[in-house]
Amino acid sequence: MTRCYLWIFFTPFFLMTSCGYHAGPEEVLSSYQTICIPYVKNDAKGQLTANLIKLVSTQTGLQYQNWGGDLTLLVDLLPIENENVGYHYERKNSGKLRHSIIPTETRLIAIAQVTLVDNMKGKSLWGPAKVMASIEFDHEYEKTRDGINVFSLGQLTNYDEAYEAAHSPLYDQLSQKIIDFIINSE
User: Fold this and answer.
1) Span 24-184: which CATH code?
2) Fewer CB near the terminus (10 Å): N or C of the chain?
3) Model's pTM, two decimal places?
4) Pairing relation of β-strands 34-36 and 71-77?
């Protein structure tokens, strides 16, 4: 009879551990109420910092504070890398193809080193870990089809404009991945 009770008592524990059950991140983060996010290193325009503050406030249940929070999220944005991933043959002004190829699609890769610090204990709770996001965009590489000088009147090339415009969705994606790291880390 006691054997039956022992079996009934230990079966739920066995099932919970055998399927990989562990205390969820909400349970870990629930012991904290506030978080401080200092300015992200190498975030020149503050766009990534602003995205992180917004997402932390809406998705983690933690309240953002300028300083003195229970937790501190330290983020160091590494230099953004770009690689050309799409090409086409260059055309002459007459429309005929040349034998050289030019890039028309570029991938931007952003990597951030993330550390979540417990300010009460003075030690790292999670991290440092590298979080990566990437985005691809199309562009005209050097000149427009009508042959107008793209540098006249100080205007930028289509590539430069596309490169700058791609940073916003790239930072959105990176911010979300950093928040997912905070929520899903053990």
Assistant:
1) 3.30.160.150
2) N
3) 0.71
4) parallel
